[in-house]
Predict the structure.
Amino acid sequence: MKNYKEYRDLAAKTLSGRMASIVIATLALSVMDLLLGTYTNISTNPSIGRLVPGVGFALSNFAWMSIFGIIGFLVLMPVRYSYETAFLNVVRDKGVKDLTTRMFSCFNTKEYGRAIEVPLLVSVYTILWMLLFIIPGIVKAYSYAMAIYISKDKPELSAEECIQESRRMMSGYKGKLFLLDLSYIGWVLLCILTCGILSLWVAPKMETAHVLFYEDLKSEVNAHTEQ
């Protein structure tokens, strides 16, 4: 396995000269995130309660949260799944020009159920661990980090089997992926200072680094299995 600096450098090299379409796709995903996140501002505005006579603020707040929560579940989750798994094609040099199209491909194929089931189950398991203690929750999140890539490469596996396979693969490698993510902390802080604008360039590099890590991890685990 490479060290975190090598993965960062290789990710930047992989995306060199190919960033235009990737930034557009990332921008589209960011806009969706922003629009679906506006419910927090809308629903906490007391004036909204007046739009529902006799019901009041509490119900209007719940209604907005429910509506946008459902939209996020049915739309944003599968789009994000398609965005993240599309970087498998980027790393495997199958082109990036259709990345934006790939983001929405889950709505036109039988992959839609898959694009909801896998990330949802990962989220549920991670949240349940987080409810116990923060640190075990973070550790489990890294255990499940490869599940979506596995689900793309092995469509015959169930969502539960993808998670178990990710746990098996990440045994002994969680710290390496954590250090890779931690190495981007400076860029993450700059993204915050630029109100998220810089993330249009940073997020794709992090996604690419994760896929590069997955590709090496898969090869290493397979090599150990064959021995």
